[in-house]
Structure formats: C-alpha cells, structure tokens
Design brief:
The chain has six helices and three strands, in the order H-H-E-H-H-E-E-H-H. Strands 1-3-2 form a three-stranded antiparallel β-sheet. The relative contact order is 0.17. A hairpin with a 2-residue loop joins strand 2 and strand 3. By secondary structure, it is an alpha+beta fold. Helix content is 59%, strand content 13%.
Length: 110
C-alpha cells in the first residue's frame, strides 16, 4: 500500500497536476481542452496526465479521435485513510478537500 500512497502523493506534489485535477472536478475533458489554459506543450501536458493516470487519479479513454480525461476521486481514499491514522486529523471530507484545492489553486492563478 505504501507504494500506492507514494505514487498518489507524488502526483499531487506538482501544482500543474493539482490544477488539472481541479479542472476535471467540473466534467470530463478532452486532452486538448486540459492543455488549453497552460503555457506548455501538449507533450508536457500528456506527461502530467500519464502521471495522474498512473496514480489512478484520472482515467483516459479514446472516443473517436479524441482522448478524454475523467477524474477518479476514489483514488484519494487511500491517502485519506492514511492521514486519518495519525489521529490528530479530523476525518477528511473529500468534498471539502476538493473545495480547498480549488480555492488554493484559484489563488495561484492570480
């Protein structure tokens, strides 16, 4: 289980990947739509998406000629359970955590 946690936390460590996750909170998105707000190449975004998919945080599927990304919020449950094991944390509400991420990432964009 620790390797899975390492992978999830490693994926979450990057601000670009956290921003992508926040974008996917709204709805599934085509890879080109995910890449649109970033000032980096499509290849760089694809690498970020590969890391997120490898951590199980997103899934990707091809619909026709377009590759779509979908948030997989259940992948955060293992990290949540691990954090709760310390006892000093309140139970993690994933909806509140997502709102927190959205607010934090919103501050970074300004």
């Amino acid at each position: 289980m620790s390797a899975d946690l390492d992978t999830v936390f490693s994926a979450l460590a990057d601000p670009t990947r956290r921003r992508i996750l926040t974008m996917l909170l709204e709805d599934d998105m085509a890879v080109t739509d995910v890449a649109d707000p970033f000032e980096m190449s499509l290849a760089a975004i694809s690498k970020h998406l590969t890391i997120l998919a490898g951590a199980g945080l997103i899934s990707q599927e091809k619909r026709g000629r377009v590759k779509w990304c979908k948030l997989e919020p259940d992948a955060l449950k293992g990290a949540s359970v691990w954090m709760q094991g310390f006892g000093q944390f309140e139970p993690v509400n994933l909806d509140a955590f997502e709102a927190f991420l959205a607010s934090e990432l919103g501050d970074e964009e300004e």
